Amino acid sequence: MIEKYSLQPSNFDPDTPKDFVLLSIIAQSFFQPFSLEDNLLIILTALTAGSGIGFNRAMLFLKDGMKLKATTWLGPRSADEAEAIWTMLSSPGIGYAEIVAYNRDLVTKMVKDIQPKLKFLVYDLESQSLPLPAMAALNREIILVTEAGSEPEVDPNFINFIQVDSFLCLPLIAQDEILGEIVVDKGITHAPIETKDIELARLCALLAGNYIYTTTLYKKVVEMEKMAALGEMAAFISHQLRNPIVAIGGFTQQILTSPCQPERCRRNLNIIREQVKHLEDIIYKLSHFLKITIRELQPVDVAPILLNLVERPDIKLKAAKKAISLRISENLPLIHCDPVYFEEAVVNLLDNALDVTPEGSKVYVRARPYNDKYVMIIIKDSGPGLDEKSREKLFSPFYSTKENGTGLGLLFVKRIIDSCDGKLEVQSKPGRGTMFKLYFKVRERGQ
After folding, report:
1. Taking residues 318-329, what's their average pLDDT?
2. CATH topology for 228-290?
3. Which CATH code is given to the segment(s) 298-443?
4. Is the dihedral of CA 295, 298, 303, 307 positive or negative?
5. Domain edges within the chain
6. Residue 180, strand partner residues
7. Is residue 438 classed exposed, middle or buried when 0-12, 13-18 and 19+ CB atoms within 10 A define those classes?
8. Which CATH code for domain 18-219?
9. pTM score, two decimals?
C-alpha cells in the first residue's frame, strides 16, 4: 500500500497540539519568497494564531543604527475583534497561507491607527540603563513581566500603549548582535503566561533572529558582488578602450602634425576607421547586454529558427571548411520563450562553437524533447574543451577565453535562459570539446 501526503501542511486545526502548530506555521516560511517582512510576519503569526502558542498580540522591535524601534503590531484590538479572528481561524478548510494573508491585511489596516503611537517607542541602545521592554534586548535575555504597573523598570509609555499587566520580552539575537525584540501578551484572554509558552516562544525568537541576520548577510553579499562587478566592468572598459583610443590618437596626430603621402594618410585613416568600428562593437555589446527585457513569454517553434540559422550568410561564412550537424526531432513541442532572444542565444553559442572548432571538424546542434515538461537544445563543438577552473568562471562578467572577447556573450545567453524560466548546463573536458544543454519549458500547441 502506498500513501501520499502533501509536503506543505494545508489546513489549520485548532485542536492540534501547540508544538505542531508552531512547527507547521514556521514551515510556511520555506514556501514564501525570500522576504524578511514575510518571514517575520510568519513568526508573529505563529505566536498569535489562536490556538497556536496561545499569545493574543505581538509587537516587533527592530534595530535601526543604535536605536531599537517599534515597527509592527499584530493582534486584535478588542475582545470582539479577537472573537472574529478566532472564528475565522476555526473555519473548516482554513489553511496556513490564508492565516498569514489575513494577518498581513490586518497589519495593513492597523497602520493608520497604530503607527503614530509606535513611533514614540524608541530606545537608545547606547544607554547603559534601559527600561523594559528594551532591557531584554540590551541584556540578551528573555524577561517575563507581571504586575507591570507597579514595576519601576517598565517604561510608562509602553504600558500605556499595550494596556496589560503581563507580557513577555523576547530578544532577537544572532552572533551575539542585537537585531530586535518581540513582545507578546495575552491581553485578550488574560490567561497566565506559562513555562511551556515561554519555551515555544523562545524557538520563534531564535528563528526570527536568524531570519534578520541571514537577510542582512545576504544583502551585504549582494552589495559586495555589485561592487566587484563594477570593479571588473571598470577594468574591462579601461582595458578594451585603451588600445583603440591610443591608436586613434596616435594616427590622428600623425596626419595633423606632419605632411604625409596620400597612401600613408589613407592607411592611417583606414586604421582609425577600424579602431572606431571596434569601439562601436564594444559599446553595442555592453548596451545590448544591459537591455534584455522580455515583457511576455510566448509559444516558440524552434525548428524553423534552427533551420534558418544554419543558412544565415554570416554563419555559413564562419562555418567554411567546417560542418554543422543539425538534427531536430519530429513533432517537436513549442517552447515558452521569446523568439528573438532565443535566436540570439543560439547564435551566440553557435558562433562560439565555430570559433573553437578546427577545420574539418563538426559542430553538433540537436533539438529534442527531454521529457514531457522540457525541450532540450544541444550545441556541441569539437574544440579543445575547458578545464575545471575555466568552467567555473564561464559565466562570470567579462571573463573570456578569446583574445579579444568581451566576456559578456555567455552571460547574455544565461540571462535569456533565466528570463525564459529555463535551465542551462555545461559539460566540458580538456581535449573533448564543450557541450551546452539548454532546457526550455514545453508550451503545448493551442495552450
Report:
1. 92
2. Helix Hairpins (1.10.287)
3. 3.30.565.10
4. negative
5. 18-219, 228-290, 298-443
6. 62, 172
7. buried
8. 3.30.450.40
9. 0.61
